[in-house]
Amino acid sequence: MSHDLPFDTCSLHADTVQALEDTYAALRAKFNVSVPNDINLHITKFESITVNPDATVGGILQINNTANECYLAFVKIHNYYHSVRSGEDEDYYIYKVWAFVTLKNDFGRTLIRRETFVDRIVNVIHHVELDFKDDKEFNNNFYVVTNDEQKALLAMNQGFRNAIMDMPDDIEMEALNHTLIISNNKNLDAEQTVQLAEFAGKVAALR
What we know:
The chain is an alpha+beta fold. The chain has a domain at 1-99. 31% of the residues lie in helices and 28% in strands. It has seven helices and eight strands, in the order H-E-H-E-E-E-E-H-H-E-H-H-E-E-H. The protein has helices at residues 14-30, 47-50, 117-125, 136-141, 149-155, 158-164, 190-204; strands at residues 33-34, 56-63, 70-82, 89-102, 109-114, 142-146, 172-176, 179-183. The protein has an eight-stranded antiparallel sheet. Strand 7 (172-176) and strand 8 (179-183) form a beta hairpin. Helix 1 packs across helix 7 (190-204). 27% of the residues are buried.
């Protein structure tokens, strides 16, 4: 950990350290944030995180003043790069951020994201998407798949669906039981992390 930052800064490029500094400052300026003690967010249970090689938690911030628990997990990812020009191999670390929100409803295991044209084509051939009766607007805009339709239908009630209708196009959510994780799966950026935290805070405010 850096003396000034609550994140693991070992083996980072200078621009990544700068991004951590900028992001931390931007979050503290916008939100009431704190560093929680002795918390395990169990990132290995979530497929959208473990798809990244050697993912580890490099720091956690809690966003306070929400109805439900809301955290930002700064996930450190080990990358490898082979330069065709020089023939040299380089390995380095980057950061991505996932918001973790604990909600009262049980979602089972569910994926939620904006629907794409490809999703619509695939769904015609092989219907796997969860549909919400009498909510055509949501069905037309979102792609939802789950391993437990009954749980997902109950958890994703009208209030929840209304809250995520303005979800940015690049945001994706994965739910496991009572925990919902949210990310844009992009490299660390201060402005995008603030936007992610704003959206996560909106979801965490649901009662």
